[in-house]
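lol so apparently i was supposed to do this last week
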Amino acid sequence: MPKYYVCLELGGTHLRLGIVDEQMNVIQFNRQPTRGLSEAADKVAYLVALLRSMVDHVGRAHVNGISLALASLMDRERSMVYSSPMVSGFDNIPLRNSLATALGLPVVMEKDVNILLLYEMHKQKLPMEGIVAGVFMGTGLGNAMCIDGRIYTGFSGAACELGHIPIAGLSEPCGCGKLGCIERKASGHLLAELAMQLHCHVSEIFLRHGQDVRVMDVVHHFAIAIATEITIVDPVCILLGGGVLAMPSFPMESMLQQVRDNVRTPYPRSTIRFAYASGDCEAGVIGAALHAKRVWGIEGETILQSPPAQGGKTLWEPPMLHV
Ligand SMILES: [Zn+2]
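anyway here it is w/ zinc ion bound
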């Protein structure tokens, strides 16, 4: 009997829904504006209605369970949503148990950046030994880390908040409630503010104003954040992603040079490797299925193992390599 994962990725702009089979093929996919959830008075009821229609589509007996990828801060046990800066009112909700009770199915949830890193590790066959870190330059500055193929969530569940490391001398308030986080200097949100001042669409800011000192300063702070991560954990590979990287004329080579300039020599400067997120629309729902499959220990637990060595060589080849 075929079995499926019903997956939902909640982002600041879009909510993506997918039904994924055991081989990680997406058999149904759609997306809708997150605004509907933001405006819903009863967030849980809104999500239950969406998920129930997906469950009914394939039949409850064919569903392994529900997997959620959320742009939210959550507890260590991944049962409670504490806050979701990009979704109005989606805070302090015991989401996992509420959905499980309403739908009568197992539910898992995880931070979206962790799910995206899992997806890219699977798709690009990134190394499962050592640390692979993801830095996502989108509206905010997202971060995720896998250690020996396992998502690192930290003691309290709040690990990898790279965007919220404090910068000495900076006192601007951050959305997290602190003052002076690096995200105030390195984020798509800041680029959007600059674009308004410069009277251009944010997607064209590098194309039209790439030499503006304020725009270059944002790129520099992205580089500082990445270099900080590399300095602390010396990862096997850094995966870079997020909508900012996809903007036309984003100065990738300049940013990578600034990263290298800010890490120690000879190591890790000479060994650091970069990979790039695919930007696949279905990454969140497939990643959520990968995560659920792993959490529930469903047969076929080969997905997140190291690629076998052949003749002393790893099968892994980064899509783009900058050393
Ligand atoms: Zn902050």
